[in-house]
Design goal:
The structure is a homodimer of 243-residue chains. With 243 residues, chain A is α/β, with parallel strands linked by helices. Chain A has ten helices and seven strands. A seven-stranded parallel β-sheet of chain A has the order 3-2-1-6-4-7-5. In chain A, helix 1 runs parallel beside helix 2, helix 8 runs antiparallel to helix 9 and helix 8 packs parallel to helix 10. The interface between A and B is large, with 46 and 44 residues.
Chain lengths: 243, 243
């Protein structure tokens, strides 16, 4: 599935979340990255005002969230589920670092629904839950302090999925908002500089010391706008008049 | 600068943050990704108990944070500063999508200190502040809802920097924790399956229908552990005894 369409096949499963605020933060994190399907397994408190508050403009994600009684129910219909864990454990499904896991999930989304699964804030996933997932994901965080809270973990994974879904499809940002100067306008500016510097005595035409090539290189790198050329030439003219 | 060492040259600048909780969340986000240098320009309330609470295990980042009176002071010593903005604006420094900005910042960190700059939660950066930055960064978020809170934005950018700093340096995760089965052990398992399926009548040796190659392919893909081979052979033996 090309690009962003794959994101619509990714569900986020929060198993037994304790804090409704974290559910809201997860919803907001999801929506900012274009994910919409939230599944909640036996949430301690939901719906809840604190979830709504933290969701901010992502209330629709909360309103459409599916509340499930069992973990297995949240995975119904998926062809791959990847459980976030902080460490490798016995009998775990094949572990992946996040970038590789996101790549695999997006590729598999071509075949059907996929899930990213987050355990309880304190206890994580049970062994039984982890065993129902075909992959485990680990975020290669700072080994001395790898403690992302639930909302932050959802945000990182949602961004990584979006980044990969967008990869190569990000339209280049225009680097100037003004009208770009033409080649001739820049060359006239360079000539103007040369004339002014000779006039001021800074540049000896007998020993030009590569000043002009360096100015041309600077202007080229900067990508001058037409208005900037006018400002610089106006400044040069005013200085020349003072001489 | 190779890999993670570049992260030690990246400072995070929060300009006039209103909510101390966001300062704490930023500190936590930074530390999880290996960033340590936090600069605060005229924070509304700092130090503050809420900042400490949200920082969780990243109190050291708060304790080492530099509080600056002016924006310019926070950029002292940097060779590049990139300001997060949500949109392109007039007279802005060259805009970059996050992945490209992170790449450029890490490359520039070879030359000196670099900064990622975040404005006030509500008002963003002033034009004067933005003008002191050599780049603007935009997160290519969902155009219909691009509202990351301050802590989430720091988390996404910190992860992107770490991801790129790690790229290619992530040690492959071992895919089995148990002792892997040898070639001969897997082949003996395949032979055992063949014998049992012939015994049960499921496999007709005259018309084998590619059953054995498919089993071998499955076991190869799974990467069997020695103990798993033992379990499967034990199960086959017990079934054979019943026949």
């Amino acid at each position: 599935m090309a690009g962003l369409a794959a994101l619509s096949r990714v569900r986020v499963v929060l198993s037994r979340p304790s804090h409704p605020g974290n559910i809201g933060a997860a919803a907001r994190a999801m929506k900012t990255m274009g994910l919409a399907q939230l599944y909640l397994v036996a949430p301690k408190a939901f719906p809840h005002a604190e979830a709504d508050a933290r969701a901010s403009g992502a209330l629709d994600v909360l309103q459409n969230a599916k509340v499930c009684d069992s973990f297995a129910e949240a995975l119904e219909g998926t062809v791959m589920a990847a459980a976030l864990t902080s460490r490798q454990r016995d009998l775990c499904a094949p572990p992946r670092w996040l970038p590789e896991a996101a790549d695999e999930l997006l590729a598999t989304a071509q075949l059907g629904a996929v899930a990213v699964v987050f355990g309880n804030e304190t206890f994580g996933l049970t062994n039984e839950e982890a065993a129902l997932c075909q992959r485990t994901v680990m975020i290669p965080a700072n080994p001395e302090y790898a403690s992302l809270n639930l909302g932050a973990a959802v945000q990182v994974i949602a961004w990584e999925l979006r980044r990969q879904a967008l990869a190569g499809n990000l339209r280049a940002l225009p680097q100037t908002l003004g009208e770009p100067a033409t080649h001739e306008e820049v060359e006239r500016l360079v000539a103007h500089f040369e004339q002014a510097m000779i006039g001021s005595g800074f540049l000896d035409p007998e020993k030009p010391r590569r000043l002009i090539p360096r100015l041309r290189r600077l202007f080229g790198r900067a990508g001058l706008e037409r208005e900037e050329v006018a400002i610089l030439r106006g400044a040069l003219s005013s200085l020349e008049r003072k001489i």
